[in-house]
Write a structure and sequence with these properties.
By secondary structure, the chain is an all-alpha fold. It is built from five helices and no strands.
Length: 106
């Protein structure tokens, strides 16, 4: 069982890092390599899966301190995670203007 959970942890880690790359690193690297803004095509990562896999994998591996710390960092940087979704919705709700509210009411 621990081999399965370790595999799940590392697969989740890969997905978390991929989501972070797609959200924050891919576009600047594309521009740095000579691409133009008009040519860039954004892609989406895997929502909720990376954080969930890391969390489930940590359930038996949390005795090891570095895995616990690495798992928490991976969950924090996973932009496809539920916490990023909730944070972005809260941000949109806080920063909305009166014009946005009036536009949505019939």
């Amino acid at each position: 069982m621990s081999i399965f959970l370790a595999t799940l942890f590392w697969l989740g880690a890969l997905i978390c890092v991929l989501n972070f790359y797609l959200s924050f690193l891919r576009y600047p690297i594309f521009l740095w390599r000579g691409g133009r803004k008009s040519e860039y095509q954004g892609t989406s990562g895997a929502p909720c899966i990376g954080s969930l896999f890391v969390l489930v994998g940590m359930s038996s591996l949390h005795e090891t301190r570095w895995i616990l710390i690495a798992g928490l960092v991976l969950i924090l940087i996973d932009t496809g995670g539920l916490h990023w979704f909730l944070g972005s919705m809260l941000y949109q709700w806080i920063t909305r203007t009166d014009e946005d509210v009036q536009r949505k009411t019939p």
